[in-house]
Amino acid sequence: MSEHGALQDLVILDLTRVLAGPFCTMMLSDMGAQVIKIEVPGTGDDTRTYPPFRKNKDGKQESLYYANINRNKKSLTLNLKSEEGKDIFRRLVKKADIVTENYRPGVMDKLGLGYEELKKINPRLIYGSVSGFGNTGPYRLRPGYDILSQAMGGLMSITGAVGGPPTRAGSAMGDILGGLHLAIGLLTAVHARTLTGQGQRVDISLMDSVIAATENTAIKYLESGVIPPRMGNRYAAVSPYDAFQVKDGKIIIAAGNQRLYEKLCNDVLHRPDMIDDPRFTDMEGRLKNQDDIQAVIEDTLGELTMDEAVELILSKGIPAGPIYDVSQILDDPQVKAREMFIPMEHPTLGSITVNGCAVKLEDTKPSVRTPAPALGEHSEEILSSYLGLSPEEVAQLREKSVL
Amino acid sequence: MSEHGALQDLVILDLTRVLAGPFCTMMLSDMGAQVIKIEVPGTGDDTRTYPPFRKNKDGKQESLYYANINRNKKSLTLNLKSEEGKDIFRRLVKKADIVTENYRPGVMDKLGLGYEELKKINPRLIYGSVSGFGNTGPYRLRPGYDILSQAMGGLMSITGAVGGPPTRAGSAMGDILGGLHLAIGLLTAVHARTLTGQGQRVDISLMDSVIAATENTAIKYLESGVIPPRMGNRYAAVSPYDAFQVKDGKIIIAAGNQRLYEKLCNDVLHRPDMIDDPRFTDMEGRLKNQDDIQAVIEDTLGELTMDEAVELILSKGIPAGPIYDVSQILDDPQVKAREMFIPMEHPTLGSITVNGCAVKLEDTKPSVRTPAPALGEHSEEILSSYLGLSPEEVAQLREKSVL
Questions:
Q1: In B, residues 57-76, which contact A (CB 8 Å cutoff)?
Q2: pLDDT in tens, B143-159
Q3: Cα angle value B103/A243/B144 (rounded, 5°)
Q4: Is the ipTM of this complex over 0.90?
């Protein structure tokens, strides 16, 4: 296998902006796909102006957000509102495997570049879209944002403190889930194409993606009629299985069955009496009286550091771990061993760090190969290599603001 | 294309239990893969004893959790600790495309069924594992659970109320993210196999998967040195972009730029004076004084229902949406249009509802075809059709507790 990875034969024309789509194509490019990021001339992806910033070698503020999510991609500027821009796009579609976009449904159709048009040019084309609500249904034209998907997909309703307000996951989880579902859809369609010879459309909705990630929540509600409450870090059916305060932070202890509870009492808390204590003899009792158990755990372990407490508990065979902030993650030996953050050189930003790929393929390893592109950096290269345009033709297109 | 979908030619031997792995193979089976769920004789997947339960036609408590996550799969019981069980597994591996497992690293090796052994039997085999920390690194042998991945992957540290404790996402998000990453890895390896003719190992860690889902969090910290605080539903760089109380619940308003803020003031709040109010003239001011903006929004909209408020705000071109609980999601017309919940008949549970698939492939539609299997329901069928065993041979294996 070449150095470029599992997807090296796939050419993706990537019209997506901001996070959900670009996160998907970041993963696919890490695994070797040739991602041609098509950006609006002059401005490019919105995230070129998103923080965090660093003063670059030209003394200008430049986005590390863009630099992170768009490594390994090439940038082609193209004005899709101009006839010549559309023409170039259509000619590229003939050579591409995949088009991705995250416009509101209908925008590509209005440009004359919707899937129905593009598949006439290239029946093998796979067309992936990700939008707030998907390409069908009454809300299809509503604006979609991460936070709306977390709100309308139900994640917020089950996240947060007991008695507290609905709370979003602290990252753009709706966008990430949308991007992951899009990647699965595209790769599945690539496989289907080996069976049928035909491409197809993949239609991902952020709201659908969040609903899927709430797993059995609706099934529980449908059976019980009880709307699931927010529970902080506790669970409805297991205890002690929660966050506990120690000297310098919080740790998780997950002693979710009788055997682990007894081990915890005997070997960690040195309180064998708690096994037969009528409050705690079964799971039902432990759930009802979890504040009492928490008090004993925190009294016993409160003088230990997170590291000491976790080491002690793990050594007794009970699942435990620290609650990390981001600085602790970056220092963690497991995270380093898994290469979840990658240092790289960027031509204008200098030494930067980008996220590693969480999909570990042992033979065709994902890799971070090239820095995120300057706006239009590869326009000439792409138009020459894919369409055979001469430097003069490219210069003319630039003059006409097509690029 | 046949009725079975995009992945109909792929045979998956699925040893995974509980959620992360079974969620992955649920998606793949929805898209047509032939998933043979291999379960421990007598007990099966742990989730067969997980709530919610319903009294089934035999008068016994039966799990709807299992029924949801394992539709479309077939169940083969197999004792992998017995030599005959191992032999049957190895013979099935010859006919399979994919093996999935979520044992702690090393368990399959000890059984003599690790990837290095299996690839000798079938070099085209793709071997996917998902575990708490992955197959490499110092924590590889630690027990891994959803909540540990949310804690150690950093999601908890950025989720929760301002000034409040670190908080988990309310679903098993670490498991879901692990399952999604596993699906991407498997499908990528299937594609790589078309190029190389060889299978490979895919190694997914829940902790890695959560770290990836925190997207730019670490990049921001590395540049600023500031550990990102918990912000409830607010964002660091945009306002008003938050949850707001109305008559019967909370809604999201996402007016994250100058144009949308002005529209909000003019067309929704009827307070054009707030545009030039020195507290709110730019984003920096709006971020600093967001409590004041919130008070005006909640005063103005507080008598409207969620539906009325959202409709009003959307009609003015400003992104907004309700914060739904699960009952509202189930009633929502968009969710119905997207078929995110599917009614089906189950032979012992009767009429049940299961989650729909969020990956919408337009030609090879994902589908829910068959109910989750009874334990070992397909043992005879599978051993007959894949290995040519006779009913008598199957009966003998059953007698010896191999099945």
A1: 64-65, 68-69
A2: 999 999 999 999 999 99
A3: 10
A4: yes
